[in-house]
Structures are given as structure tokens and as C-alpha cells.
């Protein structure tokens, strides 16, 4: 039997974003039972905007590489302290989309942790170190997230899904941003939103995942923390409807103007900081 190290790709490859979704993992021989032991996962909450931030790390890898999905500026220090306490090496700060309800923590994190790269979709037109497209893989150690384009809430929304190999966490996990919320979905009346597109995105990119795939949204306002594809296909009050009914529901939500949008969107187009090259704060060592 091959040793673990012999199967591990060099670090430069493990950080690569350029592999396509149909490429074969070199780790398919790993026993299934090992897969969940690799992933360290934490769901974190920012109460003012009811935002979830997710910390994922490959703790079986010697560097314990980690990433944050949708960090918030106000809770960036909390998240960095946690990563430090857990002995993780943060390598990516990732957004599912350009948020309108809070300022992202990605720019701030970059000033505090040397080497962290910010990531957002190319379709968002926002500034980041790495702009990803549908089909890209974001590796952290031997684990990866697959990028799926799920526009409709905003034009650049993506869903990040854990890998589908036997060496990847099972069941799969989908970080859906605001495309699919638990028993809901993001609004479609700003930022290039389209109810038509959102309906297609959810049905073609999320509801086609295995039914036991866990749904981790960017927000929850009622205390839910996780759902599954199966649950949302059965009980989502909007997306279980036919497309015309869905469009009519979305057109008649009568929501207020988002109170943070005029501050948050311009800031989030540049990583949450108007000037990401501003004088770095004291380096955060992990
Ligand atoms: Fe949003």
C-alpha cells in the first residue's frame, strides 16, 4: 500500500486553482473512512448582518491549510484568533458574491495575515487576488472546493461545493451564499439580480447535487444552521414552485431598500477596503 506522503501533491499544486472539474484526483485510493477525519469545519456567526462565515481546513496535511468563506470585517479578528488557536495556516479568504449587507473581511484579513489570497468570481467584476470561474477547483491541502456559477441574486454569485471523490468529505457540503437560503433565497432586485436566472441556477447547479448534500447558506435570520438538498427540494417555499410562480413571488416581496448597500457594495468591490495596499497592521502569525 502506498504511503500517504507518496500520494500527496506538491504544495504548489495543492494551491492551484486551475484544475478542471473532470480531472481525476490522485487520491482516490484513500479509504472512505479517512475522508471526514481530514476536514476541520466551523460555522461562525456575525449577528448584525446574520452572516455565516465558514472555516475549513485540511488537518491531515502537514501545513494544516485553511480557508474562510464569507468573512465579515467586524468578526475578522475573532476568526483569525480561532484559526491561530487551532494551529491552521490560512491561505484563502473567499467570497460567494459581492455582499450588500456587510463589509467583507477579506481585505482586512490580507493586511493581518501575510500570504492570504482573496478570492471571488470573475463574473462579479470585483477586485481580488484570484478570480475564479465555474469548474475551477480551490485546493486547500488534499481537499478542494468546486466552483459552480449560481447567478440570480447577483450576477457574480457562485456556490462552492466540497469535492466528489472518496477522499473528500461525505456527504458533500454546498456553500450557497445567498442563492439558496434555508427555506428561502436571496432577493433579486439589486446588483444585476434576476429571478429567472436564480431559479435556473438553483435547479441546475444545486438541486442536481446528491440529495444528502448539506446546504450551508451565507445567512439565516431564524436560527437555522444547515439544511440539505433533499430538504430544500421538498420544503423551500419559493423554489419548490414552478418558475412563473417563483418569479411572481420574487416580484412581490416588497422589501425595503438594503440599508448597508451604498456602503457595503463599493467597499466589497475592492476586497472590503478602499485601499488594500494601506499600511498593514501587525502581522498575524499562525
Ligand atoms: Fe447577498
From TrEMBL:
Catalysed conversion reaction: S-sulfanylglutathione + O2 + H2O = sulfite + glutathione + 2 H(+)
Pfam families (alphabetical): Lactamase_B
EC assignment: 1.13.11.18
UniProt cross-references to InterPro entries, sorted A to Z: Metallo-B-lactamas, Mito_Persulfide_Diox, POD-like_MBL-fold, RibonucZ/Hydroxyglut_hydro
Compartments, as annotated in UniProt: Mitochondrion
Cofactor: Fe(2+)
Top-level division of the source organism's lineage: Eukaryota
Primary location: mitochondrion
GO biological process assignments: glutathione metabolic process; hydrogen sulfide metabolic process
Domain Metallo-beta-lactamase: 50-219
The UniProt record lists the keyword Lipid metabolism: no
Assigned GO CC terms: mitochondrion
GO terms assigned for molecular function: metal ion binding; sulfur dioxygenase activity
Keywords: Acetylation, Dioxygenase, Iron, Metal-binding, Mitochondrion, Oxidoreductase, Transit peptide
Record flagged with keyword Iron: yes
Family under the similarity heading: Belongs to the metallo-beta-lactamase superfamily. Glyoxalase II family.
Protein's recorded name: persulfide dioxygenase
Annotated organism of origin: Erythroxylum novogranatense
Amino acid at each position: 500500500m502506498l504511503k500517504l506522503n507518496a500520494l500527496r501533491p506538491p504544495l504548489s499544486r495543492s494551491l492551484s486553482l486551475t484544475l478542471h472539474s473532470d480531472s481525476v484526483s490522485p487520491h482516490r485510493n484513500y479509504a472512505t473512512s479517512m475522508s471526514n477525519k481530514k476536514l476541520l469545519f466551523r460555522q461562525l456567526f456575525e449577528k448584525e448582518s446574520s452572516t455565516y462565515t465558514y472555516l475549513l481546513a485540511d488537518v491531515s496535511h502537514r501545513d494544516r491549510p485553511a480557508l474562510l468563506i464569507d468573512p465579515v470585517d467586524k468578526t475578522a479578528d475573532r476568526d483569525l484568533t480561532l484559526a491561530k488557536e487551532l494551529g491552521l495556516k490560512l491561505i484563502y479568504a473567499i467570497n460567494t458574491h459581492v455582499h450588500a449587507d456587510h463589509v467583507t473581511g477579506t481585505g482586512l484579513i490580507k493586511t493581518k495575515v501575510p500570504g492570504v489570497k482573496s478570492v471571488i468570481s470573475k463574473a462579479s467584476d470585483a477586485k481580488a487576488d484570484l478570480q475564479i470561474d465555474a469548474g475551477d477547483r480551490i485546493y486547500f491541502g488534499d481537499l478542494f472546493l468546486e466552483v459552480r456559477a449560481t447567478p440570480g441574486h447577483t450576477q457574480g454569485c457562485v456556490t462552492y461545493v466540497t469535492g466528489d471523490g472518496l477522499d473528500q468529505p461525505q456527504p458533500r457540503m454546498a456553500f450557497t451564499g445567498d442563492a439558496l437560503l434555508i427555506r428561502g433565497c436571496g432577493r433579486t432586485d439589486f446588483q444585476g439580480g434576476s429571478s429567472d436566472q436564480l431559479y435556473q441556477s438553483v435547479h441546475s447547479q444545486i438541486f442536481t447535487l446528491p440529495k444528502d448534500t448539506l446546504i450551508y447558506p451565507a445567512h439565516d435570520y431564524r436560527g437555522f444552521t444547515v439544511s440539505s438538498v433533499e430538504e430544500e427540494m421538498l420544503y423551500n417555499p419559493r423554489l419548490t414552485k414552478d418558475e412563473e410562480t417563483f418569479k411572481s413571488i420574487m416580484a412581490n416581496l416588497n422589501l425595503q431598500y438594503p440599508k448597508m448597500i451604498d456602503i457595503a457594495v463599493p467597499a466589497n468591490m475592492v476586497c472590503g477596503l478602499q485601499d488594500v495596499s494601506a499600511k498593514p497592521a501587525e502581522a498575524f502569525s499562525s
